[in-house]
Design a protein that fits this description.
- With 650 residues, the protein is an alpha+beta fold.
- It contains 17 helices and 16 strands.
- The chain has helices at 2-12, 17-33, 93-98, 127-138, 284-322, 326-331, 349-374, 385-396, 398-411, 417-445, 454-481, 507-514, 516-534, 542-569, 576-584, 586-601, 607-644; strands at residues 56-58, 60-65, 73-74, 108-110, 115-124, 142-147, 150-151, 153-160, 163-170, 172-173, 175-177, 183-185, 188-197, 204-214, 248-249, 255-266.
- Strands 2, 3, 6, 7 and 10 form a five-stranded antiparallel beta sheet that branches. A four-stranded mixed beta sheet has the order 5-16-13-14, with no helix packed on it.
- Strand 2 and strand 3 form a beta hairpin.
- Helix 15 crosses helix 17.
- The chain starts with a helix and ends in a 6-residue tail after the last helix.
Length: 650
Amino acid sequence: VVVVVVVRNAMTHHGMRRRALVTALVAALVAALVPRRAHGFYLPGVAPQDYERDDLVYIKVNKLTSTVTQLPYEYYSLPYCKPDKVKHAAENLGEVLRGDRIENSLYSLEMRFDDQCKVQCKEIMTEEDAKLWKSRIEDEYRVMMILDNLPVGITRYIEDEKGVRKKYERGFPVGFVSENGQAYVNNHIRFTILYHKDPETDLSRIVGFECEPFSVKHTYRTWNPDKPLLQTCDPREKIYVSDSQPPQPVGKGEEIIFTYDTLFKESEIRWASRWDTYLLMADDEIHWFSIINSMMIVLFLSVMTALIMLRTLHRDITVYNQLETAEETQEESGWKLIHGDVFRVPFAYDWLSVFAGTGVQLICMTMVTMFFAVLGFLSPANRGGLMTAMVMLYVIMSFTNGYVSAFLFRMFKGQAWKMNAMKAAFMYPGVFFCVGSVLNVFIWGQKSSGAIPFGTFFVLMFLWFGISVPLTFMGSYMGFKREPLEEPVRTNKIPRQIPPQPWYMNDIVAILVGGILPFGAVFIELFFILTSIWLQQFYYIFGFLALVMIILVITCAEITIVMCYFQICSEDYRWWWRSFLTSGASAFYMFAYGVVYYKTRLVVTHKVTTMIYFGYMTILSFGYFILTGTVGFLSCLAFIRAIYGSVKID
């Protein structure tokens, strides 16, 4: 395939014929070295599947989800029709952590063969079943299914300046509640399978999986389990299920019959574009507004930073270097006067080094994850791939955590590097473990599939203690052995007295003011991230997210440098922790925004859901605090070293 494409391009672009010919020869050589069975490159689990006419295809069932409770349940936790033997599909780590439980079902279809009124089974509702059905329906649970790695969706149409476009609403509701409070079950599903046919081979590929749920009170003359004939759905009499038929109520002793239709529709959509409808972004203007808004913040901070660097600092350094007498030096005021204290070891320096090391670990994990996501390796087609990648990259990046934390720890004249490595290895994962374990107990108490199974829990413990901790100690050993950075100025033995500071330079005021702009650069994108997490929607605009991430890093660095410059100009040399807290304070606004989102966007009726939401928001905000704080701290450290290394100190 590579050879054909390159040669075709060589024939088309006459001006580049020689270069394309060389490329074609190289590609041919590479293709010759590849084993003959390799037909192309596809991500594991997302390769196209060709079907012949009348091939038997099975629909897999996933979980039941709700935006009201945030507690997923297995499909067969409701008394749906079960096969004789329920088989669980192999799932990766990310799928298990998301609560996915993929299983086989009685839904089967023959490729390109329409089949209607297929009966699955008949059930009699017990009192317990009726309570369970009503509870799931009132909590707005939706059924998730999978066909050829495509999730089922209800068709919706949106109209904007680009015209009328189709998009999918994931899953279908378990049922609905009438105005008088009566619950009804959606016991008939009409599946529409979109397929793209190859005219040469007559093979087909599935490119769409749509459904339309109905609630219908089925009736029959006599029940024959082998071949039941319904009065409410009979293709021979051309009687099909519609919304005009009486719905299936929920109640003790109610007889419920589960049925489904399968309709096939040829489509012009190609297999490579079949996810476009699922990932349709109807509000891309908002994302561009977010980028422009963030760019304006960066531009404003860049101008301020440039003024400080090019005018004020350049003038200060020139003046300081021209001072010759001690009397002239004493008459001066500003940041040069604290040169003997600016590198004084801060309070709780061991924890500062641990926070900075963990922040570098989170930054590396985020950047690498973003890189692969932008390239398309972590698309929704690869279910659980994003979460799996984040967990594995966090574990691998533990080496950078140990290295950076130990390097800074030695710079602060610390000696107990093993204890420092222990803190680095257990600080953020320990918080995650404590909060996650408490939440997992409550989720397990609700018998939800979102609870982490024992086997997965053991795997996570192995990743932490078996891989992450040793890597952290390895990095700490190497970082502590490295020669520390030489301070550009000597530190006085006696600390200098800090003059009284104006109210606007108070620690709390300066930190809260500094956190506003980094949060302002990301809050619009934060809305879509929270929506994808809590409202069960796809998030696949990693290009926008990568731009916002770059802008966030620049904003944190610049706002911290500006605030740090104002601080040292006020002869306050306690910049270490403040530089970390200045940019890290944006996490406070992030958590506050999470509270607003909870109040305005979510409809929560369970206390466990509230605990889950604020538990995970606490973990996310804490990680965001460490990440942004580290960017600010390292930027300020480089800034301080640069300016004090530029002046002559006797």
